[in-house]
UniProtKB/TrEMBL annotation:
InterPro entries: P-loop_NTPase, Rab, Small_GTP-bd, Small_GTPase. This is Uncharacterized protein. Transmembrane segments: none annotated. Coiled coil: none annotated. The lineage of its organism: Eukaryota, Metazoa, Porifera, Demospongiae, Heteroscleromorpha. CDD domains: Rab (cd00154). It comes from Amphimedon queenslandica (Sponge). Keywords: GTP-binding, Nucleotide-binding. It comes from the Eukaryota. NCBIfam families: small_GTP. It holds the Pfam family Ras. GO terms for molecular function: GTP binding; GTPase activity.
Length: 175
C-alpha cells in the first residue's frame, strides 16, 4: 500500500488586479477593513482536511495587484500547484485583464503545470454587476479554466473554494 505523508504542503498562487478582493478571500473570516493594499506579497496558510481525512496545508501566496509591484512578481510563479486568477464582477477592466494575468503564468511559470481557476469576486454587489456568470463561465471554458464565484463579505463559496483546490490538487498528484 502506498504511504501518504502526514503533512502535505501545496503552493497556491492568487493573482488579479488590485482591489479585486484577493486578500479578503484569503482572510474571509476577518476581512481587512478598510482596504489595505498588499505591498508586494503576503503569505497565508490554510489547513484543509480532505474527504479522505488526509490533512494538507495550502501555502497561499497573495500577490499585490498594483503595477508598482509587478517587477517582483515573476519570482513567485514557480512550483505552484494551483493558480487562482481573480476578477471583480463589477469591474470590466479587471475582467479584461484576466488574459494578461494568465499570460504571466505561462511566461513566468515553470513546468509545474498548475491547476487554473477563474474566480469572480464580490457577487454580493448584484446591482453593480457588469460581468454575468454566463459570460465568465464561457470565457473560462474557452481557456480551460474552472470558474467559481465568491463573496468574501457574504461568505459565499469562501470555504468551499479552498477545499476544492486542495482536493483537486491532491487527486492530481501521484501518491
Ligand atoms: N462588496 C464586496 N467588497 C469586497 C469583497 N471582497 C473585498 N471587497 C473590498 O474590495 C476592496 C479590495 O479588497 P482586497 O482584498 O484588499 O483586494 P486585493 O485584491 O487584495 O488588492 P491588492 O492587495 O491591492 O492587490 C476592499 O475595499 C474590500 O473591502 C466582497 O466580497 N464584496
Ligand atoms: Mg491584497
Amino acid at each position: 500500500m502506498t504511504q501518504i505523508p502526514a503533512q502535505i504542503v501545496y503552493k497556491v498562487l492568487l493573482i488579479g488586479d488590485t482591489r479585486v478582493g484577493k486578500s479578503c478571500l484569503l482572510k474571509y473570516e476577518n476581512p481587512p477593513i478598510p482596504y489595505t493594499p498588499n505591498l508586494g506579497i503576503d503569505l497565508s496558510l490554510k489547513r484543509i482536511n480532505l474527504k479522505n481525512e488526509q490533512e494538507v496545508l495550502l501555502q497561499c501566496w497573495d500577490l499585490a495587484g498594483a503595477e508598482t509591484f509587478r517587477s517582483i512578481q515573476y519570482t513567485y510563479f514557480s512550483r505552484c500547484k494551483a493558480c487562482l486568477v481573480m476578477f471583480d464582477v463589477t469591474s470590466l477592466s479587471s475582467f479584461n485583464n484576466v488574459t494578461g494575468w494568465i499570460k504571466k503564468i505561462s511566461d513566468y511559470g515553470d513546468q509545474s503545470n498548475p491547476l487554473l481557476y477563474l474566480v469572480g469576486s464580490k457577487i454580493d454587489l448584484q446591482d453593480e454587476r457588469v460581468i454575468s456568470s454566463e459570460r465568465a463561465g464561457i470565457f473560462a471554458d474557452q481557456l480551460g479554466l474552472r470558474y467559481i464565484e465568491v463573496s468574501s463579505f457574504k461568505k459565499h463559496n469562501v470555504k468551499l473554494i479552498w477545499q476544492l483546490v486542495a482536493e483537486e490538487i491532491f487527486n492530481r498528484e501521484e501518491h
